[in-house]
Amino acid sequence: MGNGFINPANDGIDVTDYPYDIEAEHGRYAKHAYVVETLKGTRVQVITTAGNTRTYTITNRMEEIPGFIKSFTALTNVSRIRIFWDHR
């Protein structure tokens, strides 16, 4: 599946390879995420627990992606997104 690696500096997992199914890889949804690296015009599809699919156009570092994320599917260029299990 995807490429996720633990970043010991913040206990999050960086996702750099898409598609990435958080639930399949870790057995649970991520509670939130933020963008670590961006590529201009990056779009990431987020599937939430409510079964809704939302598309975000990411333009800045540190943008937050809210709530109970099941998976990411890159639609164009991808960025590095850090996922967390608990809110900060």
Kindly list the characteristics that best describe this protein:
single chain; 88 residues; mainly beta; Jelly Rolls; four-stranded antiparallel sheet; 48% strand; globular
How would you portray this structure in words?
The protein is mostly beta strands and 88 residues long. It has a single domain, classed as Jelly Rolls. It is 6% helix and 48% strand. The chain has one helix and nine strands. Strands 1-2-9-4-7 form a five-stranded antiparallel β-sheet, with no helix packed on it. Strands 3-8-5-6 form a four-stranded antiparallel β-sheet. The longest helix has 5 residues. The chain is globular, with a radius of gyration of 12 Å. The N and C termini lie far apart (27 Å). The mean pLDDT is 78.
Strands, count: 9
As for the number of domains, it is: 1
Span of the ends, CA to CA:
27 Å
CATH architecture: Sandwich
Tell me the series of helices and strands, N- to C-terminal.
Answer: EEEHEEEEEE
The SS-based structural class is mainly beta
The number of distinct helices, counting runs of at least 4 residues, comes to 1
Fraction of residues in helix: under 10%
Sheet-strand content, in percent, reads: over 45%
By CATH reckoning, the class would read: Mainly Beta
What radius of gyration results from the CA coordinates? 12 Å
Question: Could you please say which CATH topology applies here?
Answer: Jelly Rolls
In the sheet with the most strands, the strands line up as 1-2-9-4-7
Please state the overall shape, judged from the principal axes of the Cα atoms: globular
Assembly type: single chain
The profile of the biggest β sheet is:
5 strands, antiparallel
Provide mean pLDDT, rounded.
78
Which stretches are poorly predicted, pLDDT < 50 over at least 5 residues?
Answer: none
